[in-house]
Amino acid sequence: MKNNRKLSNEKKIILFTAAALIAAVLGTWLLLEPQRERDYVAAQQEAMMDEITSYIYEAEQAATDAADITDLLYIEDEEETTSTDSEYFYEPYGDNEYNGTAYEPENPVIASFDPVFSDPIPDNSFPNAIVGIGILTIDSINLRLPIADDIEYATLRIAPGRVPQTVQIGDIGNAVIAGHRNYAFGSMFNRLGEIEIGDIMQYQARSGELMEFEVFEIAVIEPENQIAFLQPTTESIITLYTCTPIRAATHRLIIRAERVS
């Protein structure tokens, strides 16, 4: 009987110990999981930023090269038109001596080159096949994020995205950018509620084009309210769209900004 009781107590101790170990492991995992998620998202965002930045660098380099070619051709053209070689000058009065007037052809060839900026075709090289289209910067809340071109669940886990049914950012109309308002301070659109009228947002497309938008409206709306998606016909605006308040998410916070440059 004593042996049975002893065996039963040993089993209980083993079970309690195993349960305690399992609880400790699960607790540790739960504590570390949010940090692991933040680290994963940060790494994916960094990869997107690097990819977008490489596109921007290539576009800016192409524009610089084009400008150098234009300057070179302009210099060559100047050298030709100021040459003392007789073929570039004329004697307007028959046999009179050269009077210093430069020759000007009727249809001069003007050296010029205007680089055309256009987004390259998405190649799905971003993490999880997410296509990054630009970088949004809001200095007033220390925000700098890559922007994707859709609002799928996997996309918004990594970065805010342009609502596909709205215009391209910078075009005439309303480009809506939706993003999560993560709990971690400064993560995603967490600090969007600190933005004020008159704040400036910068957006640089991966084509290299840099745009500035000035905040002119801040509003809290019901989730079913479609006012955030209204499309103007003469202005270029962006609307940042996220849940509010943090954690409760019963409403939507929208920040409207009009393009100023």
Structural category is alpha+beta
Strand segment tally: 8
Overall mean pLDDT stands at 76
Helix content: 25-40%
For the record, the CATH class of the domain at 35-58 and 116-259 is: Mainly Beta
Q: How far apart, in Å, are the first and last alpha carbons?
A: 89 Å
Summarize, please.
33% of the residues lie in helices and 22% in strands. It has two helices and eight strands.
Topology:
Layout (H helix, E strand, L loop, with lengths): L1 H80 L50 E7 L4 E6 L4 H6 L2 E2 L10 E6 L21 E6 L4 E12 L14 E9 L6 E9 L2
Parallel strand pairs: 4-7
Antiparallel strand pairs: 1-2, 1-5, 3-4, 5-6, 6-8, 7-8
Can you describe what's shown?
- The chain is of the alpha+beta class and 261 residues long.
- It has a domain at 35-58 and 116-259: Sortase, Chain: A.
- The chain contains 2 helices and 8 strands; from the N terminus they run αββαββββββ.
- An 8-stranded mixed β-sheet has the order 2-1-5-6-8-7-4-3, covered by helices on one side.
- A hairpin with a 4-residue loop joins strand 5 and strand 6 (210-221).
- Mean pLDDT is 76; it is low at 81-126.
